[in-house]
Amino acid sequence: MAEDKPLVPVIVGPTAVGKTAVAVELAALLPITVISADSRQIYRGLDIGTAKPTREEQGAVPHLGIDLVRPGERYSAGRFAAEAAGWLSDIGADRQPVVVGGTGFYVRALADGLFREPPLPAGRRAQLRQWTGRLDGLGRWAARLDPGFSGGGRQRASRVVEVALLTGRPLSWWQVKAKEEGAMRPWYVRLTVPRQVLHQRIEERVTRMLAMGLVAEVQALLAGGVPPDAPGLDAVGYREVVRHLRGDLAADELARAITVSTRRYAKRQETWFRHQLGGDPVVTLDAVDSAGALARQVFELWERKD
Question: How many H helices and E strands in the chain?
Fold first, then answer.
């Protein structure tokens, strides 16, 4: 039963919006343990470029989900969900778990379970895709076959039709079944700021990361035998530094390249969190306010949630 699962605050938002700072301030108001839902902070040695919580911040607030694997090792949303479910159950009753992060698939896997598409016969699937590729009114077919279909592009409608016809059950049914496997009930806090403000924060963060030694961090990883295309080093910021060290990106272009890539990534995150949090409770807060003021809002709303 969903009611048997713990209700857990989940602080989400784009990179540089201030999620970690809010969590640290929240810890002064409520004894919390942070579960990081960040697909890059899992890597040991990737500290500066992932804006990993500092030693001081981790000392003040217990953090889980950080420094789990070495760069180069693959780590899936499914693995995160399984391990984070264990962390949730191990956190004592005297502490409130709070999920913090910007990796939407990690958050969804933990909250909603990991949707696994049922086995579909390859031959019939190929024939069906040819048919739907020529079909007019594909969206209407999708809506008739799946009452849970809420619209979307042709590719999404095609998938809805495909699953319904080949499995005998609508895609929304399979998704509900997956959600029953979720480890918690999420209480979302989505932090957002005007785009101009976010762009300014990103630019300032990139400048700060480079001043802290981001290039040297990557050099050390490469010298330690981490391949330049390893999982982890393909993240925003790291891949630009790798290009720079290869001689493909000039030093005076590095900050700008990282800033542009980070802005694009933040835009994708914002779009995802705006549309993919489902029907769960979502509190949207203007993160222009200070981290302390935002933490106070989160605390007060959490206390009044019932």
Answer: 13, 6
Domain hosting residue 160, numbered range:
122-177
For the chain, list the strands marked E by DSSP. Answer: 7-12, 32-36, 63-64, 96-100, 185-192, 282-286
- Note if the pTM is more than 0.85: no
Angle at Cα 101 formed by Cα 99 and Cα 104, nearest 5°? 105
Tokens of 211: 């001043």
- What token pair was written down for 158? 């095609």
What pLDDT score was predicted for residue 230?
Answer: 94
| CATH code of the domain covering residue 283 | 3.40.50.300
HEC per residue, 139-172: HHHHHHHCCCCCCCCHHHHHHHHHHHHHHCCCHH
Of 131, 152, 177, the position where a domain reaches its end is: 177
255-279 residue pLDDT tens:
999 999 999 999 999 999 988 886 6
